[in-house]
Amino acid sequence: MSEQTVTQQVEIDDFSLSRSRSRDLSEVAVLYAVSILVALVLAAALVAVTGGSWRAVADALLDGSLRNSGRIGTTIGTTVPILVVALGAIVSAKAGLVNIGQEGQLLIGAAFGTFAGVKMGGPGPLVLVVVLLSAVLGGARWVGTAAWLRYWRGVPEVLTTLLLVTVAGQSLGYGLKREWLLLAPAVGRANRNQVSEQLATDARIPRVTWFGNEGPLSAVLAVALAVAVGFAFTRTVVGFRLRMLGRSPRAAQRAGVAGPVYGSGAMLVSGGLAGLAGGLMLAGGDFGNYQLVPGFSVNIGWTGLLVALVARERALLAIPLAFVFAALRTGSGFLAATGVERRVTDVVQALLVLALLLPPAVLFVRERRRALAASSART
Q1: 33 and 143 part of one domain
Q2: Do 115 and 141 contact (CB within 8 A), yes or no?
C-alpha cells in the first residue's frame, strides 16, 4: 500500500471519527433538552393541578431570583455555600468515597468559626481569616471521624457521615444553650432566644454593590476554588492518583497509591470545604445575620450534595448548576403571591435533578448494549 493511500485512509478514518463524535454530541444535547423540557412540562402540570398558574409561578421565581432589584445579589450569596459544598462532595467522589454528611460538617464548621470569631480579639481582617480557617478545621475534624472508621475499622463512610449529621445538630443545640460555648450573653438577648453573638462589623466578609445588587466578595473565592479543584484533578499528580483510586482501588494500590492516605486526605478536604461553606455563610451575611442560630444550615449541605450529583463530578459545571439551585431557593419566597405552596420548588428541583441524571443513565445502557452486541458478534 502506497504512502498516499495510507494517508487518504487515515484522513477518512479521522473524518469518520469526527462525524461520529459530532453525532454523539448532538444526540446527548437532544437527550438533555428533551429531558429538561419534559421536567418543566411535568412541573407546569403539577402547578395546574394544584390550582395555580404556571406562568405566574415562573414569573414569581424569576422575579424573586433575578429580575427584581437586588435579587441577583441575594441569589449569588446563596450560590456561594452551595457551590463550596458541592466542590467538597466532588473531591470525595473522585476518590471513590461517598460523603453524604455535608450538612453536619457545615454546621460544625460554622460552630467552630463562631466560637473563634466571638472569643478572639484583634484586628477584624485577622479575626475573619481565623473564622474561616476554624470553619475548615471544624468540618475536616468532623469528617475525620468517618475517615478513621472507614480505613481503620472498615465502617462504610456513607453510613457514618450520615449518622454524624444528627450528632452535629445535637451538638450545635448543646452549644447554643451554654454561654461558655456559643450562646450569647443574657444581656440584650431574649431568654428563650438561643443565638450566638454577632461577628464584629470589621470581621465580616466585604460586600460589593453593582447596579443595585449587593453580594459577598466570597463569590470570587468560590469560583476560584472551583477552578482550582478542576485544575487539580486534570493537571496534577495528586488529582490523577485520586481519580485512579476512585476508578480502581486495586490498580491504584499496585501503582503505589496508598489508599488510606489519599482516601483520608480526600475526606478531610471534602469535610473542610463543607466547613468552609459554613464559615462563609456565617461571615457573608446572607444567612443568620452574622450569628449562629438554630437551623442555621437550612439544608444547604443537602443542596450542595445534589449539585455535585447532577454535575457528575465536574467542578466547573457545578458553578452554573449551583446558581440554578440557588435561584430556585431564593425565588421560592415570592410564590406566596401566586397562591401556590412554596414547597412546589422542591418538586421542581427534584424533577430537574431527575432530568439531568436520566441522559447519562440512558447513554450508559445504550453503550452497554452496544458492547454486548459487539462481544456476541465476535463469538
Answers
A1: no
A2: no
**What predicted TM-score, i.e. pTM, was given to this entire model?**
0.87
Task: For residue 44, give the H/E element and its range.
Answer: helix 3-49
Q: What is the grid cell recorded at 345?
A: 420548588
Q: HSE (CB half, 13 Å, CA atoms) of 67?
A: 8
The number of distinct structural domains making up the chain is 2
The burial class, CB within 10 Å (0-12 / 13-18 / 19+), for 279 is buried
Question: For the chain, how many residues are written?
Answer: 379
Backbone angles phi, psi at 207, to 5 degrees: -115, 140
Angle between helical axes of 3-49 and 344-378 (0-180°, round to 10): 150
pLDDT over 90 for what percent of the chain? Answer: 48
Clarify whether residues 347 and 328 are in a common domain.
no
Residue 316 has pLDDT above 50, yes or no: yes
Q: What tens digit of pLDDT does each residue of 83-112 get?
A: 999 999 999 999 999 999 999 999 999 999
Query: Which range has the worst mean pLDDT, 77-81, 120-124, 297-301, 363-367?
Result: 363-367
Residue 26 grid coordinates: 448532538
Q: CB within 8 A of 142, min separation 6: which ones?
A: 101, 104, 105, 108, 109, 164, 168, 271, 275
In the block, which residue shows the cell 481565623?
130
Do 290 and 88 touch, CB atoms closer than 8 A?
A: no
Q: What angle do CA 214, 216, 218 make, to 5 degrees?
A: 155
Q: Report how far residue 125's alpha carbon sits from residue 205's, in angstroms, rounded to the nearest whole number.
A: 9
Q: Are residues 348 and 201 in the same domain?
A: no
Q: How far apart are CA 48 and CA 346, in angstroms?
A: 16
Please tell me the distance from the alpha carbon of residue 209 to that of residue 289, in angstroms, as a whole number.
Answer: 18
- Grid cell digits, residue 327: 435561584
Range of the domain at 345: 27-52+340-379
